[in-house]
């Protein structure tokens, strides 16, 4: 590579500053400071351009690297596959594509078909498109509406932003697509109904039914929800919520689409988040942990019942799912995913996520006892959040600058943590933790020790 050697990292920093448009962050600060460049990773740890070591408590910042960094066996599997057969459009099959689909479906009783693509947004778009086509094929063009929930996130495309429950991430990108309708969130900590526990869960689900009735059930095709809301503030559903949601979908013939882009692949201590709640979805979308970021791969998984609706008559060339994702035919994705899945199974990482999740929760609850600023601790498995408030009674969120200071304070202590999207005042003020599923007790303790120190430094 021109102008680059391992010893010339300052050139890399300059090239980055001059030409890379980073995701999510503002660039003004780079005029005086440097962007963080991650140069190496191993296990739970990464190193930046200055040789500083961090424990990554958020798996690549956005809950992705489930099996940890530096997995040579995944690199080997991808290399072997690429030199044999790197790509062929998805109208044909490939060996790793077929084998991974079979293995994935073994983990998802009730599901049947895997549609390959490249990102979480894209997988969700595929499901939306299928829902729309079903509306046209089966319901005379009715049932095109897709319900989504306040605070849930499904991606950055115009379609998925139309199903975006975090206003701050969509408000500057309209006009959005029609026939996406919002339902209320289910967060008991910031309750919208005077109830608690299972009663709260039922009320939050009943609120979805009210929206369906107001819209007209004959116009609603699908309901798309995260099993546990991720970037919107790590929102775990109250008991009874999901049972009632499922019941409502069945009652009104509404397809249930579960967005497992974050929760999937062991993150919550089961293979998939929805499996905690006895849900039988019609669509499950997956991305991040499918290959832990070793290759770009996403899946829109459906039941055979959904697939059957598209099994079309060869006499009518228009009658099938008229869609392609060019890079859905890359074999690097399923080759990496297969080895990723083998690692998760052989190393017992789903079980480890459940076990280490209990320790993480216990440590965070101990911090809650100690730091008045912690209003709520939420999550499941290695997917947890701390909501910070100025006052436990009023639940007024802490200032955004304080959240940033805690995140920076953790980095100073050698731990990278995350924070939910928080630019709407009063909404998101949650620190996020999603370490790799290989985390040990010592890793978990090091993470929460850093949080303890940073909270003490910022809030006293
Ligand atoms: N769904 C959820 C729940 C997500 O958290 C994300 C990404 N943060 C997406 C979908 C979109 O995935 P991608 O960025 O791969 O398009």
Structure, explained:
With 460 residues, this protein is α/β, with parallel strands linked by helices. The protein has two domains: 36-67 and 348-459, Aspartate Aminotransferase, domain 1; 73-346, Type I PLP-dependent aspartate aminotransferase-like (Major domain) (Aspartate Aminotransferase, domain 2). It is built from 14 helices and 15 strands. The strands form three sheets. It has a seven-stranded mixed β-sheet, sandwiched between helices. A four-stranded mixed β-sheet has the order 1-2-3-13. Strand 2 and strand 3 form a beta hairpin. Helix 4 (95-106) runs parallel beside helix 11 (332-346), helix 8 (197-215) packs parallel to helix 9 and helix 13 (400-412) packs across helix 14 (441-459). The termini are far apart.
Helix and strand topology:
Elements: H1 9-19, E1 38-42, E2 45-48, E3 53-56, H2 59-63, H3 72-84, H4 95-106, E4 113-117, H5 120-138, E5 145-149, H6 158-162, H7 167-170, E6 180-183, H8 197-215, E7 220-225, H9 241-251, E8 255-259, E9 283-286, E10 298-302, H10 304-308, H11 332-346, H12 349-370, E11 374-379, E12 384-388, H13 400-412, E13 415-416, E14 418-419, E15 430-433, H14 441-459
Parallel strand pairs: 3-13, 5-6, 5-7, 7-8, 8-9
Antiparallel strand pairs: 1-2, 2-3, 4-10, 9-10, 11-12, 12-15, 14-15
Helix pairs in contact: 3-11, 4-11, 8-9, 12-14, 13-14
The structure holds 4'-deoxy-4'-aminopyridoxal-5'-phosphate.
Residues 62, 119-121, 124, 153-156, 226, 230-231, 259, 261-262, 287 line the site of 4'-deoxy-4'-aminopyridoxal-5'-phosphate (PMP).
